[in-house]
Amino acid sequence: METSQSSEPCTSPLPPAPGDTVCDLVTVPARQGLEAVDILRRGAADAVGPVLHDDDRDTLGFLVPAGTAAGWDVPGSTCTETNGRGLRLAPEPPVAGADWLLPPGDDADLATDPAVLREALGEAARLIEAAEKCC
Q1: DSSP string covering 93-127, please?
Q2: Cα–Cα distances in Å, from 29 out to 1, 14, 25, 45, 58?
Q3: Dihedrals phi, psi of 60, to nearest 5 degrees
Q4: What SS3 class is residue 40?
Q5: pTM assigned to the model
Q6: 51: closest CA among 109, 99, 93, 101?
Q7: Three-class SS of residue 16?
Q8: Share of the chain above pLDDT 90, in %
Q9: What pLDDT, on a 0 to 100 scale, did the predictor assign at position 96?
Q10: What letter would DSSP give residue 27?
């Protein structure tokens, strides 16, 4: 699996408006992402922020703090920079063809901690690999 970084925006090219959240987006295959969500939710209920599910691409996207993409190096994932563009965390997903797996809300963090996400994605990859080897 290769790691790549992208400078494609995860939102519209408009500057952020008041109330917008500036974030980066870590995208992973859906299976690994679902395992990671389970791991994060078992570890600490507030450790995971909003998560997008893109059925068309079979991926999950974790909102992480802006600037994460600059140092992201997790194999099998990409981290997209927003380049200062804002993201309105509304009931409707900001990406066409996607739905919120974990929607933004008053009780949710605005973004997932990248260090915690990195650990959860690693553990998820190991669990998937072990499951594939045993059966």
Answers
A1: -SSTTEEEEE---SSS-SS--HHHHHHHHHHHHHH
A2: 11, 28, 13, 22, 6
A3: -120, 145
A4: helix
A5: 0.78
A6: 101
A7: coil
A8: 41
A9: 73
A10: E
